[in-house]
Design a protein that fits this description.
With 594 residues, the protein is mostly beta strands. The protein is globular.
């Protein structure tokens, strides 16, 4: 009997080990990249230049203005460590990533984003959905009639610049000709070293986080710096100085994961959390390194079922390659410390009224980055949900404050690519956060004001809110929400913090369906909220609409330098925050509560 028992145990063990081996079958390293991922090696400058130029012809340029804005193509440029004497123009749905452990290991002569429209009224206003990170540049091109070379990065929302070392200056605006510099509505810079000056020029607003800079020059409406070195002096408002909101340190952040290439193999690098961070990272240290044998690299034809199959098999690391993914169920994140890294503004579309990503309750340390979420024709509750309301109400899990879930460069849109006369798209909210200790690090949540047919009217493509926060101790660094048909942001959780917020009320509403409803650009019902550089702008294009306040918060909220701006149109914003601050009712008028 004992021998039979031993044999049974041995057979069971063999089957268990076989099952474990099958479940955790190694992924290939190097991976099989789709054609939307371009991997470049040093010593091939001519062919690299030709490739990036050919892609830019469809994804960028100013003739026609904002060429490529509704392109269905997506691209990622992955540069192996080395030196490249090339000029890389970054257009729509294009991301550039160096693959060294530090920016100085990947040297690119010029990385460029010019105005998408050389008429100043267009300028860079629609320069969305692109990014560049983890490279070093000593620029050789001159811009804006300046005597010395600089990097040109004239962008608006959803165009982050991360983990770069620029030996020289950066212009985040561009002058082409005529009376004025091109309008620009940026922007986001993080974890970078700029040895010279950063010139903000015509940029309306900007957030810089954890960067070292020689100097920062200028500011139009709302410039926020968090945990930076070389920041200007803080100043509230645009009278007697430029509007600069300066926060000495970043309370907690783990920098965005990135890809490292060495000796023919790929690794996923996961920086660990840092507290009270000042300045850029000590690059390449305090990171977990995951061999790509443990990373699933998607194909643009993958379904959510395929990706979830990998996640349920034990894989915790997924790279979503550039493409458009029509998902009829959400990608389910159920394990702590899962990492999802998007490349090339990979676009996830809700196909059946579903969220495209659902993060489970009761887990910590999830990292999700580099994705464009898009509403579909069947209305969803949200496009991305971190936790659920049911689990939030049960309240039976204590989240780990030192291992937060972080969303980096997560952008969402409702409308834009559809003709509303043929079909509309909709969701109630773009992002919902129920779990505690979640960080949002750069997000733009956009109900489209223009689309493939022109301007959007009549509250088409309805969405109530860009972001709803129910979790406690949630932090946002660099948040923007525009044109939704209710409160643009609804914050119910306690002890939240937001560092920089840019918003525009919807253009196409009426007094009855918007102003009289009491909607605001940022509503906080939770306690102990802190907001720094929170801005609400209005352009009531189609009707005269008066809203009472830009922001409404609980009475114990701390608000530093909140502001409102009247862009154009009709109506007004009567107060800035909680019935404080002057009205704005004329073009270019701003009001601050200092």
């Amino acid at each position: 009997a004992n021998q039979l028992y031993i044999i049974i145990i041995m057979v069971y063990t063999v089957f268990a080990l076989l099952s474990f081996t099958l479940s955790f079958a190694a992924e290939p390293n190097p991976p099989t990249w789709p054609s939307s991922v371009k991997v470049f090696a040093p010593g091939q400058d001519s062919s690299v230049q030709q490739t990036v130029d050919n892609i830019f012809k469809t994804q960028g340029g100013h003739s026609p203005p904002f060429n490529g804005q509704w392109s269905s193509e997506r691209y990622a440029f992955l540069f192996q460590p080395g030196s490249y004497s090339i000029d890389v123009n970054i257009g729509f749905y294009t991301t550039l990533m160096g693959m060294g452990k530090m920016p100085s290991q990947t040297i690119i002569e010029n990385v460029i984003c010019e105005n998408g429209d050389f008429d100043y009224t267009g300028g860079a206003l629609d320069n969305f959905w692109r990014s560049a990170e983890n490279f070093m540049s000593t620029p050789t091109l001159k811009w804006n009639n300046e005597a010395t070379p600089s990097m040109m990065w004239a962008v608006s929302q959803a165009s982050p610049l991360r983990r770069v070392q620029i030996n020289g200056d950066i212009n985040v605006w561009e002058y082409n000709s005529g009376c004025c510099a091109g309008y620009a509505s940026g922007g986001y810079l993080a974890d970078s070293v700029i040895t010279g000056s950063i010139s903000s020029g015509s940029q309306q607003q900007w957030i810089t986080r954890n960067s070292n800079q020689g100097s920062w020059v200028g500011g139009v409406w709302n410039m926020v710096q968090v945990g930076c070195k070389g920041s200007p002096a803080g100043h509230c408002g645009d009278v007697g100085g430029s509007p600069e909101t300066i926060i000495a340190s970043t309370p907690i952040i783990a920098e965005k994961p990135y890809i490292y290439y060495n000796a023919g193999k790929y690794y996923l690098q996961i920086p660990q959390p840092e507290m009270n961070k000042v300045g850029a990272s000590n690059y390449g240290v305090n990171e977990a390194s995951i061999d790509f044998t443990n990373v699933y690299v998607t194909s643009p034809t993958d379904s959510a079922t395929t990706i979830n199959g990998k996640l349920s098999s034990g894989i915790k690391y997924v790279v979503i390659t550039p493409g458009i993914y029509n998902l009829t169920q959400p990608i389910m994140v159920t394990q702590s410390n899962t990492v999802i890294l998007g490349l090339g503004m990979a676009t996830l579309i809700s196909g059946a009224g579903n969220a495209v990503i659902q993060v489970a309750a009761n887990i910590d340390g999830v990292r999700i980055s580099g994705l464009l979420l898009q509403a579909g024709s069947i209305k969803s509750s949200a496009l991305l949900a971190v936790g659920t309301m049911t689990d939030k109400k049960q309240g039976n899990y204590r989240y780990n404050a030192t291992n937060p879930t972080i969303l980096y460069d997560i952008f969402a849109r409702v409308g834009g690519t559809n003709d509303p006369s043929k079909f509309q798209v909709s969701t109630t909210s773009m992002i919902d956060v129920y779990n505690d200790y979640v960080i949002i690090d750069d997000s733009w949540l956009w109900r489209a004001d223009h689309d493939i047919t022109g301007s959007v009217y009549n509250s088409n493509n309805p969405v109530q809110s860009g972001l709803r926060v129910y979790g406690n101790n949630v932090i946002a660094y660099g948040l923007a929400a525009e044109h939704t048909l209710g409160d643009l942001v609804l914050w119910e959780g306690n002890s939240g913090k937001t560092y920089f917020y840019q918003s525009e009320y919807p253009y196409d509403v009426t007094q009855a369906n918007y102003g009289d409803m009491g909607y605001v650009a940022f509503r906080v019902n939770g306690s102990s909220f802190e907001g720094y550089g929170i801005g609400a702008y209005c352009y009531f294009r189609d009707h005269a609409v008066t809203v009472a306040n830009g922001m409404m918060t609980s009475s114990d909220a701390k608000m530093v330098d909140p502001l409102t701006v009247f862009l154009n149109g009709n109506g007004q914003i009567t107060h800035v925050w909680n019935n404080q601050g002057a009205a704005v009712a004329a073009i270019g008028k701003q009001a601050y509560v200092c």
